[in-house]
User: Fold these one by one.
Assistant:
Number 1:
Amino acid sequence: MEKLKIGGLKQSLELSQFDMRGPDSSEKIVLGISKLLASKEINIEFLTYNSNRNSYHQLTFCINQDKFSNTSKILTQECPLPMGWEVNCREHVGIISIFPHHSGIEILAIVMLSWAEQSIPIRGISTSLSAISFVTDYHVIDKAVKVVQDLFQLPDNHAPIKPEILYYQSTVVKGD
Amino acid sequence: METIAVYRESRIKTYGFQRATDLALIEFSYPLSQIKYLGEILSQDDIQTLRPRFIIAQETDHEISFVFCLPVKEGRDFHASLKKTPSPTPHTYIYPVGLIFFHGPHFGDRYGIADATFCTLSKADIKIMASGCSSSSIFLVLVQDDIEKAEEVLAKTFEVAK
């Protein structure tokens, strides 16, 4: 059977994931967390938020793994959560982004089926303008990439899947 | 190789805002132990033709919870398909909702983008129903009537690159 063509595949660096769930006041939590992380110059690499669920609201975000300890500390010390809210974290996750050709739901179904067969967990999903991104455990990310490579047809001369350039934002210009 | 970037912007630059209205939001949760079965449901021919404008999924204790935003007709079809599954998938259907989304240079690698977005909407009393930020893009699901106001206030915080 012919493989479904995709536009590309990208793997993230090692990240850490925080899940915050609670019954209400979620807008305040989202606002507080994003402000706190920005003030500490911590980039949110991935974020999903749903305030629409009946019983509870959820904010999930991923940051670079080297910021895990610092983020855990500041969340504990500087972000008291309202009653009923809980935080769960995964220290080692990664993101695989697949760039589809207008067949997002097909890719979603194929990845869900194949990863389930291979016991590769899905910790989160978000679509963007050009990609569908899957969060999984970092220790299985190479296996997850291999499964995706076997399932889809990548373009010839595909760029490296693992990041080769590490990009940081700073407030200081060298030589200032 | 490491690249360190310093941004000197009075306002954060974006490539522009896009919006979609008359969308249906469908939200449902599924046991993680049966995720393969959900994959089979999403593989059905009638669902494969759908073109969601936005999808997020979040893991909860023993479940994975999905939000789909679809054009209204596709939303109705998806709603019907979920009801037809052998064990009907309980779900929430909301219509109409609006979507506003934008992306910018290295948004995925920079701090403060989510803060600028959420702070702007909060100051304008605009409630976010769902959001996803990945791959340099910000997607916001809002009450449909808030979309115009949201673009207006976001356009004051972010500068559309010319």
Number 2:
Amino acid sequence: MSSFLNIIVSIVFHGLAYAMVLYVISVGLSLTMGMLNFVNLAHGVFAMAGGYAALWIMKTQGTPFVLALPVSALLVALASIVLERLLYRRLYGAGELDQTLMTIGLIFMATAAAHFAFGPLPQRVDLPPAITGHFLVAGRDFPTYRAFLIAAGCVMFLALWLGIERTLVGARIRAAVDNRSMAQCVGINTSRLFTTVFALGSGVAALGGGLGADIIAIAPGYAMEHLIYFLIVVSMGGLGSVTGAFVAALILGIGDTACKILMPEVGAFFVYVAVFVVLLIRPAGLFGRAT
Amino acid sequence: MARGFRLLELLPWLALCALYVFLPELLPLGTQIIIMIIFALSLDLLLGYTGIVTLGHAAYFGVGAYTSGILAVAGWDGPFTGLAAGAMAAAVVGLVMGLVILRTKGLALLMLGMAVTLIFYELANHFQAWTGGADGLQGISVKPIFGLFEFDMYGKVGFAYAALVLLACLVFVRHLVLSPFGRSLVGIRENATRMTAIGVPVQQRKLIVFSVAAGIAGVAGALSAQTNQFVGLNVLSFELSGTVLIVLVVGGAGRLYGAFLGTPIYFAAQDILAKGDPVYWLFWLGLILIVVATFARGGVLGLYDSLVQRFSALYPAQLKRGNP
Amino acid sequence: MKMLRKITFGVVGLHALIVAPALAADQVVKVGMILTLSGPSASLGENIDRGAQLYFKQHEAELPPGIKVEIIKRDDTGANPDIAKRLAQELIVRDHVQFLGGIVFTPNAAAIAPLATQSKTPFILMNASTSNLTRLSPYIARVSYTQWQTAHTLGQWAARNGFKRVFIAVSDYAAGVDSEKAFEAGFAGEGRQIIGHIRMPQTTPDYVPYMQSIKDAKPDALFMFTNSGRITTAAVKGFAEAGLTQAGITLLGPGDIASDEELDNMGDAALGTTTAAIYSANNPRPENVEFVKLWKKAYGEDTVPSFMAVCGWDGMAAIFSAIKAQKGIVTGDGSIRAIKTWINPVSPRGPIAIDPDTRDVVMDVYINKVEKVGGKLVNVTMETVRNVKDQWKILNPQ
């Protein structure tokens, strides 16, 4: 019995850590898709870029991990602004087909560029000694890094939630998500808001990519390989909802891990069946607004 | 029935004949192109004509491939019966899936379609005894076509067979889109609410076209199993769903012949760009996709249309109606 | 006049006699290499290609006079049997290759097999590892390895070395299942148990929970097979992170899980991993020292050849030997006859030969352990098992 309890604890703990990484990466996508109604399949590219940037900065400049993360996030956010102005802007009115196509094209280009710059193998991660190793709680030892991820994810969730629900900017974002034209009528500069949200979403994704680099390895195929998971988090959680993405990431992270460990025979199916069921019952996602 | 038949429509067939006669070493490539064209045609029915955007169409290709493959290994190896079996299995699966997922739209529909394909992929990987799993389904043999033409190493019979199947599919799809049913699909794409208002059973029509499109995708899959005499897990992959979408949009969706244009362009681009350094052909493909999505929305056919418009504006032969 | 004509004809005739054979003997033997060079498994194909190209450059001069070899490379982009088959068809029909080689994934090889038979083209496998592949065509020969040579040998070694309780965890796909069965067959016996089996989905996000449940079962060792590359790195790291090394559990596996080029990425988590491998970059054989030197010179001081690179090298060596044996007049049947009886005592990995009955490779299998030597992680050979044949074919005669 105790052994079973052990496994459950392990599943919840590690599933949570994985869920947090998924969350931090995907929440930006939920916001941009909710606000801009833009099918941005290339969101994973920003996470990947954040991972590569953080690791590269650490390796070549000797910057510590905790500093390299926000720096790389900032760099990616700035780069995303450029991309948004140059490219994404042109397709805001276009149908989801063209948006899908363009963003798939972006994924391909980014994959090839990453392969060219860094080679095909996954990047090695040298975590700072402070967060490696284990710590003891109630007789079990837990990896410090995973605990760090859980903490970081919760902090991010709280920060975003407060930011969206309690600030003026957040109110404007919520208004634009609910009804863009009305928001414009009221005088909100939606164009600038879009760019801000896009940069925020991409920056946070970059942060997630760097944070989770030891769990979700940084390799050229990153954006395509994990696309499905990011999309599942977003569609299951509901577009434009910070809380929805959090809950969906939890279900996914813990549920996926639990099923793969406890029922390996059918474990691989859980994720797909879960999204299937949720979207059938609530097509707008768990916390989405039905249009 | 050659409703509104235009001479231009003979062009693809002339090209295929020319390929057979003048470039026989390209026939294996030609066969794969034909299979992809059939697959893209089926997607066009859904995407181009009815406006159902899906990233999970490979599921039906895969169902068709594995059905005809497994039957062939078990001894039912007639070519046309294999195609029929693949088509029917895929159409039935399409009907069932359609009942479930067509109640949604937009992102939810996209995700559900993907989920179905991913589930089928895992199923095929899991039931190794039936499908060969990751190692693939071996031992598929196909009886000679019409009892006369055996599949050969050079791919000549395979090519001619595939071309025949393509002709049949094209005639069918063309008839369908030119019929009142087909016209109503376009109406559904443009404004489903209005269509309901005028009494068109929208859900029923969507379901029918979904099932038909799945069936034709199944034909393409069965054809692939027969001409390759092998089925791998890649027939159910997300990559395949993506490729057929790209191929269709590059050619021009909703135009019937977009599939005929987009497929050879994609394969040719791949052949040329990958020769240099296989890894980086992705870069050029990505660039092409971005350019097409941003500047050439209707694909190649759309570009052609706008060119024709520009040119006819240069030298107008007639005065505008109503002006002296 | 008659004299002049005779002399003219004589000179012309002599000239023709001298020049003609030289012209006629200028022959290009084309080798078609079908590899996975893009996508997530690109590094696998890349390594085989590099090994093959390296052999080619080193040994070009040994070819019979007037014979040149041309390598035509094609990318099958992954486990895509339809693409691989089409590429093979084109290589045979369009480019008129006289040898086919390469292949990372088993389904690709299986799809090409009937073509090799129909066109009588020798098809040299340089990685695809399912045992029955060489039975699919009399023109197929393999120089790489099968799980029934590596995992099986490891099972026998584990049995000999006091392991009693072993847990098995493999990636849930055909090769993983193959590896599992091979190990079990080698390990089975009195007093020994497999205390658990897990098949891990290839899309597993996190291996630590698996590892913890394995730790709780308290085995002596964990036998693991995972897809090469990112998945293996994640799994090995998970092993260490869950504390299995500290709990005294040995990580066992075929050489695939401790590939020389990936060791650096895995870091110290890989220490102690014991594998049955066909190659170690650390092997002190003079042929290997030379090989590694050549490799580093060609591809960079901080790169290391892996077993896949050696398979590419050996595959090209087999092809060259067939060309040399036929003195440049290359036919399909002649080539496969030559390769069937090929013996190569000077391969970088150790002495290898092709078994004429099965056309599969016979070689030494090394029991390697990952240790830190001079600050770098390397595979150190503890024991060598000589002349290992593919057990599956022995257990399943045709």
